[in-house]
Amino acid sequence: MRKYVIMGVQGSGKGTQCTLMRHDFELTHISVGDILRRHVQEHTKIGALVRRTMTAGELVSDDLVESIVRDRLQQHDWNYGFLIDGFPRNVRQAGFFLESYDIDGVIHLDLPDEEVQKRVLSRRLCAACGMDYNLISDRPEVEGKCDVCGGKLVSRDDDTPEALAARLRDYYGKTEPVLELFRRKEYVLTVDARPGPAAIQKAIRAGLNLPAYQP
User: Fold this and answer.
1) Structural domains of the chain ordered from first start
2) 18 is in an annotated binding site
């Protein structure tokens, strides 16, 4: 069983790398962001709170995120292990996580701020089906329309320069201490997130001593 945490700023490609690893090693990808967005799309009470928070460019409260992660991991559908994305976000959460679960490594995708801004502000989301696009690397066949359902592509509510700047400040303030905690336990593999997805995946597997990636 393999259990990994993947960390990095928004736009660093965490979801893409999780997908490449998940398929080959039968890992369960647990994305806190995806869970929160699902609540928003389904108009739950949690979703209403999340929408207000994200629109303001802030991060969802630690208590809420912690409870979501705890509930998700208690489902125990990760027979071969998991990749968790979006957690832990601070030292308190990291302590809870290390007390509860043994992990095999922390994958840290490192991306400069200017590249983060370029990638994040190019993201688009289908308003109808939720399919993700990026105008740099994954453009739709017809501009402004979803390839799957033909729905209108829109920017996420929190993908604005102001909201992104606030998230980056919060990320560095809270997440860097988490990385330092994991580094003291020799868990962290830092990988340059600027190359293409295949090159990043090869570097991850080499650093974790996993079988080589075959595109």
Assistant:
1) 2-112+162-208 (3.40.50.300)
2) no
